[in-house]
Amino acid sequence: MADLSRISRNRFVIIGRAGMDFYPDPPGTKTEEATHFFACLGGSSANIGVAITKHGGKAALVTSVSDDAIGRFALNQLDAYGIDRRLVKSVAGEARNSLAVVESRIEDHQSVIYRNGAADFQMTIGDVEAVDYASYGALITTGTVFAAEPSRSAALHAFDLAKAMGLPLVFDVDYRPYSWASAELAADVYSRAGSLCDIIVGNDEEFGFMAGGLDKGLGKAREMARSSASIVVYKMGEKGAITITPDEEFRTGIYPVDALKPTGAGDGFMGGFIASLAAGHPLKDCVLRGSACAAIVVSRVGCAPAMPTTAELDDFLATHPGPTEA
After folding, report:
1. Which residues pair with 244 in a beta bridge?
2. Which CATH number is 114's domain given?
3. H/E segment holding residue 20
């Protein structure tokens, strides 16, 4: 197991996609009835990077974007949020940036994701070999990077390089079935990747998927904590989360809010959780602060722009009556 105290450096290299999100405007509008849209940075890894920078940390992104106007939009947004994108490569040809059309509504919510020929899957072994891993406190990735080649092999190679430098590996399972050739392949690759990681965060469905059944998910999370990971966070939606380490297991609740949309909670949780670890908060408080960030994000438009600052998070915690009982 890697030394998790390195996370206190508050400087992270993140592997994964950056894209564009479209939100029908005003909030509550159905996509098929919309004539105006709000555009913002999207992609789970980019969103996590935004969350970390809003909490005062440093984040560098490793990925590929399309060499076109949409790719340049993503690059400009990364610059605007202060994310180091020197290791983001523009690729020509038919590869296209990820695009999500996401409604700011709960009832009959629709999210339409365009991922055919995704540019981020063009990340190569050469791209991850260009990273100065020793200068970072941890490597963070989301499961999407493993869905296709050459990105899959590149990400696994990055794991090897980071581990050789003593970096903790942080894995957000983030299973998106539409990105994979088969569920069997995804389960195998995720289990392999998870066995290499020090911190693993996923929901009950994702752990259940890896284990071969929803009822087996918690057992899978516990197995990972026993065999390899230092921290496993098993999220259960409205039921809160179970956090498992080799030495303890505890439950935490959530912070109920009037949600505007169901998306972005996972990215907000991961960013707030990691930033809180870097700041030296006790583990239980880190989970609760991540949960509070998730609550804030679903109550706002967008994902990247919805990520709270530390001051906004602290104000939320000071005024919210939660969390719910675990």
Report:
1. 232, 249
2. 3.40.1190.20
3. strand 19-24
Instruction: Please give the tally of structural domains in the chain.
Output: 1
Residue 326 belongs to a domain? no
What tens digit of pLDDT does each residue of 5-47 get?
999 999 999 999 999 999 999 999 999 999 999 999 999 999 9
Query: In sequence order, which residues have a C-beta less than 8 Å from that of residue 38 and are 6 or more positions away?
Result: 22, 23, 24, 25, 301, 302
- The reply to whether the predicted model has a pTM over 0.90 is yes
Helix (H) or strand (E) holding 292: helix 283-298
Q: Maximum CA pair distance of the chain?
A: 54
| φ, ψ for residue 24, nearest 5 deg | -55, 135
Q: Is 87 left (phi over 0), alpha (psi -120 to 50) or beta?
A: alpha
Nearest to 130 by CA among 74, 46, 62: 62
* 112, part of any domain: yes
- Which residues are bridge partners to 234 per DSSP? 202, 242
